[in-house]
Amino acid sequence: MKVRQRAPRHVPDLEQVVAATITILEESGESGFRIETLMERTGISKSSLYMAFGSRDGLIAAARARQFEAMILESIGPIRQITEQATSREELRANLQLITAFVADLSRTAQRVERCAVIAGTKGRPEFSQWLAETQTRLSTEFARIIEDAQLRGFITRKHSARMIGNFIQAVVLGRVIVGFDLDAGPDELAQWTEMVNDIYDRMLFVD
Description:
Blueprint: H1 14-28, H2 35-42, H3 46-53, H4 56-85, H5 89-104, H6 109-120, H7 126-152, H8 162-175, H9 189-206
Helix pairs in contact: 1-2, 1-4, 3-4, 4-5, 4-6, 4-7, 5-9, 7-8
């Protein structure tokens, strides 16, 4: 009797699994996230899933950390670009002012809310909190190196540490979420905000 050969099981790349998890989380939230849905979309077995991530929480932590990383890199990326390309302090200052207006736009409120939701999700979940802390620390270090490079080239003052400057800029960007819920902000709010933040940056970064 001929023995039927079982077709080899498709084992998806773990990066694909994390990406699919992020998509499902964006569609359904954590409360609506189902392992079975992920298995259907990726073809991964439950045993492989738990071997790689330990638990449902471990999988969500990995996905949320990746999501969080992408959000921060979207803010850091333009600053890295203008810093590396700058040939003078004035050029860096002018380009930073343009970026300030871009990242402050209220069309990005949903992204900031999502980032706050990821942070809030660490409550009572030490494993998730650790994943996120490691991600944030790594990205803050990367941001500090960008600032430090500009300091070494004489484009940014050295009166504040590179890490403090990087953390301050991240805090300003994330804190902008509050304005998205201010119904009386006014039509010229973005222009006022941009002018104020650029004034702060001027004094903090470009005045020796």
